[in-house]
Amino acid sequence: MLKPLFVVAAIYLAALGLALLFVPAQFGVDAVPEDPSPELIALLRLLGGPLLGIAVLNWMSRDADPPTVRNTVVLANTVGFGIVAASDVVGVLSGDARDLARVFLIVHLVFTIAFVVAWVRAPASAGRSEG
């Protein structure tokens, strides 16, 4: 289950990262003004880099054998997707998020749940600290 999860997460994060780098205003539809400032575009592009980095981390971890590496990547994805999903929930419930946030909320919740399940299913001896 972990390899397909890493692959799908890598593809998703790479798509977001590339969209932020190459078409930030279009990606930010309903969130970015029609005539965004260069500073806003630069900020959006800045966010694309770390997403691409995490995409590469997930892709490279898809076949990793050492449980510590895999568990570290699983935990990092759980935290990242969990925080983004929580932010989506707040935005959707408050009405402050764009309409598209409802779709992203579902996607981010699914990723969070999948990584939590992967974490829980990992054997305790696989480098995950107990306690």
Give a verbal description of the structure.
This protein is mainly α and 131 residues long. It contains 5 helices and no strands. The protein has helices at residues 2-22, 24-27, 38-61, 67-94, 101-121. Helix 1 packs antiparallel against helix 3 (38-61) and helix 4 (67-94) runs antiparallel to helix 5 (101-121). The longest helix has 28 residues, at 67-94. The chain starts with a helix and ends in a 10-residue tail after the last helix. The chain crosses the membrane at residues 41-60, 72-94, 100-120. Keywords: Membrane, Transmembrane, Transmembrane helix.
Key phrases:
131 residues; mainly alpha
What is the string of helix and strand elements?
Answer: HHHHH
Which percent band covers the strand fraction? under 5%
Given helix and strand content, the structural type is mainly alpha
- Unreliable stretches (pLDDT < 50, length at least 5) are none
Number of strands: 0
**Helical segment count:** 5
Compact description:
The chain crosses the membrane at residues 41-60, 72-94, 100-120. With 131 residues, this protein is mainly alpha-helical.
Secondary structure elements and pairings:
Elements (H helix, E strand, L loop, with lengths): L1 H21 L1 H4 L10 H24 L5 H28 L6 H21 L10
Keywords: Membrane, Transmembrane, Transmembrane helix
